[in-house]
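INFO  loader      accepted 1 record
INFO  loader      residues=209
INFO  predictor   begin
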Amino acid sequence: MGFETGYTLDLEGTSAANARYPDKEGAYKIKIVSFAEYDSKDDVARVVLHGMVVDGEFKGCMVQDGNNVPDPEDADRMKKLAPFWKAIYLSTGRTWAQVDKKFTTKWSHFQNKIAYVYYIPKSEENQYSDLTWITEEQYTSFNETAVAVASDDIEIEDDEETETPPPKPKRGRKTAAKKKAEPEPEPADVEEDDDDDDGEDPLDAIDDM
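INFO  predictor   done
INFO  writer      dumping tokens
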């Protein structure tokens, strides 16, 4: 069977095979490097923002997030999507006063902007990765908490691994409960034989002969 052209590939929700993604849940500082507009299968206008992690253990890894584009003529749709887009604007350094102004779909102004996200990689429990846009203050708070928790874990592990030696016995006077060593008994007196009382000296008997 020869190769045929003309097929339409459905790439919605897929990632590039050469992209490397963080494999650890956490808060990341990223730079938005590109964006792409497309229409979903339900004919809904969407845009995907691609970001690159700029520091830390996963520097150079990619993350991405796709969102529906609000329609100013559809008030209900605008109301539902506004909180998501407001989070993106705040993440890229806009103030509340700025994001409360008119919404724009000029995606190029996101190009090369620094932003902050909380990323959960896909796993056996999570079929898809999850990304939430956060502010710089939230990013700092998340990482400070993570460092504090890691420090506590290290201290707990050290306590578990180090066995406390038993206390050494104190040296001092013996307690009254212990019996004193009894003195060894003195040897019994042995009576010496008195030769004068018990009989004559055998040598005197020889002299009498």
